[in-house]
Inverse folding.
């Protein structure tokens, strides 16, 4: 059987300017630095995604961009899919998207929002102690899937590592 890695990434710290729609909120300077730190952490673990599912919000796109740059990606290494359901829907829909991943993908990154990314992590490994607030901004949860993406479901993917990326830390 093939072991696959699912990386759940909550977007980095976003600004909340007046008169800016939620979907258009940009990252703060700290958010950009923390997202780069998340990419450096993934690189240190040898994790380079083959596919990325990303919410189309500005803060998630900017988070992925900073992670990608830290991974040394020139832009064509991973297939990136902007998935509106990751912005509008919940954990059940996100799990359906994960299960639909091509079998050739060994590392999948999902860049999204709370509570959805934290809920996915809790569903995949319900025995893991989770902070009441779930993943923090620029928080990562790595899950191991022993089998196909279609096997990804409740209790099927143990949490193998988690990290809250902070620049300089």
């Amino acid at each position: 059987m093939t072991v696959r890695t699912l990386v759940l990434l909550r977007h980095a710290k976003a600004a909340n300017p007046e008169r800016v729609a939620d979907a258009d909120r940009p990252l703060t300077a700290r958010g950009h630095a923390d997202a780069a730190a998340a990419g450096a952490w993934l690189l240190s673990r040898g994790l380079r995604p083959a596919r990325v599912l990303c919410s189309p919000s500005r803060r998630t796109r900017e988070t992925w961009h900073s992670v990608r740059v830290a991974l040394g990606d020139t832009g064509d290494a991973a297939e990136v899919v902007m998935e509106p359901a990751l912005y509008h829907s919940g954990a059940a829909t996100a799990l359906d998207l994960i299960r639909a991943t091509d079998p050739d993908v060994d590392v999948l990154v999902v860049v999204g929002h709370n509570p959805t990314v934290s809920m996915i992590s809790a569903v995949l490994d319900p025995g893991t102690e989770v902070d009441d607030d779930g993943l923090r901004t620029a928080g990562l949860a790595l899950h191991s899937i022993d089998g196909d993406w279609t096997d990804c479901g409740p209790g099927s993917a143990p949490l193998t590592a988690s990290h809250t990326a902070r620049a300089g830390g």
